[in-house]
Amino acid sequence: MPQRLKYLILLATLFRLVAASLVEFGNDEAYYFLYALDLQPNYFDHPLGVGLLIRLSTFNLLLTHEVFVRLGAIACAAIGTWLAYQLGTRLKNEQTGWFVAVLYTASLHTSLIAGTFIIPDSPQVVFWLLSLLIMHDLVAVPADQKVPMRTWLLFGLSVGVTVLCKVHGIFLWASLGLYILIYIPSRLRDPGLYISVFLTAIVISPIIIWNIQNDFITFRFHSDRVGGGWIHLDYFMQALLGQLLYANPVNAALILFSLWKLRSTSFLQRDGVRFILLNGLPIILVVSLMALFNPMLPHWSGSGFMVLSFLGAAYLDERVTQSADFRIHRVLRGTLIAMGGLLLVSLLVIQFYPGTFGSKNKKEFGDNDFTLDLYGWKHFSADFTSWLHDQEDQRKLPAGLPIVSNKWFPAAHIEYYVARPLNKPVIGVGRIVDLHQYYWLNQQRPPLQRGDSALCIVPSNFHMILEESYYRNFTSAELLHVFYSYRGGKMARYFTVYLLKDYQKNDEVHEDIRR
Questions:
Q1: What pLDDT was estimated at residue 486?
Q2: Confidence band, pLDDT 50/70/90 cuts, at residue 350
Q3: Are strands 474-487 and 490-503 parallel, antiparallel or unpaired?
Q4: Which residues contact 358 (CB under 8 A, 6 or more apart)?
Q5: Please, is 198 exposed, middle or buried when counting C-beta atoms within 10 Å of its C-beta (0-12, 13-18, 19+)?
Q6: CA distance 19 to 140
Q7: Phi and psi for 486 in degrees, rounded to 5?
Q8: pTM listed for this prediction
Q9: pLDDT tier at 324 (50, 70, 90 boundaries)?
């Protein structure tokens, strides 16, 4: 490994470790921690990859501080940087590989969102890049020669593991299929192709089996998220701008410019251009098309922009080779500064912004302030724990009351920061579509019986109307206490604690979805 690549990976890893130690979990991260509590072949939202990674990075849940939960993502980012360098080197040369590694480090998606925070993309990026390396070896074999069976098997296995991290890894087979159909149709007669497909199917079979056992709930959930409807240009623009932002605006500009220059400049061999475009564009186009009808999360197409960055790196290499006056360091420095600056500003806003830039309405104070997902939970946990112990000691509340929630957020935050330190269970009450994994977690926990009472914590930025949420399942609610959370000397939000009484056991999440 070149010395400069070692330094890049080391410094980026240190920055990620610092960021991971300073910021509390976001909604998704707290939720994915639930996966590690009960390892399954598949979950309501995603396959098992991220849950297994958390189990490994926390040493089987021995060390559960945020840094250790996120450690797997940080390790994956380091490995991903090295794999990106390897693929860039194979596509053109060592310098292109170095440029790719820098662009990878500067991307918000690969370096921060999936490289510091723990989400299903964290392990998937590594296996996506590994699959691309194997695919590159596969398509590089001349059409009149046989692809080694070992290469086919490795590709099928790697894609299978990619899908076990997140199902859209199946785009890798779509990209290879398109490449074969368009450029090397003779490969359709190679039995290794079908053996490789079969191997992928075997690897991902736990996803299918679990869904057969659970009424295909994962597929039904995601089909509702991406289904058709009226065209919404605002959704499309949000998704488009979000994708460009997550790629890093400097990276995105370089990618767009290199795509434009393909019309007039040959800075990468034809096979390399085909490989990049067929692996990068399909997932971007599909996500953008779906965004015309439904809100899309920008990181869904992050792997596509990651692949297109190889094109930008190849263009930079060509410019450096052709012109000694081209200031490559300005481009690389600019994209790293953009990434570092955004990270620094984000950390400062999360930790020190006075109050909230969300809603100031009393009933939903702090709503639409995404930074509050990453702030204030530890302080609230300490205050709530002290208050609860006092209430139990004074016999104002019975000891051992469970905590209930009707939404996976903020339930997952309450689980990690409040309930686990108190050794209390969080029980999901309500609809499966709102509670997701809590349907299965409920089955591992002491059941809530008819007539029971429970505590309920409602953050103001996740405001709910009790009459429309809990009164269907409990006959009454008593306001117990309000905790105020401050940031920068101003109120950011508040937490309301209720005592819900007389549980009716009439909610969907306590029914058997497999009947």
A1: 96
A2: very high
A3: antiparallel
A4: 365, 366, 367, 368, 369, 372, 461, 493
A5: exposed
A6: 40
A7: -115, 150
A8: 0.92
A9: low
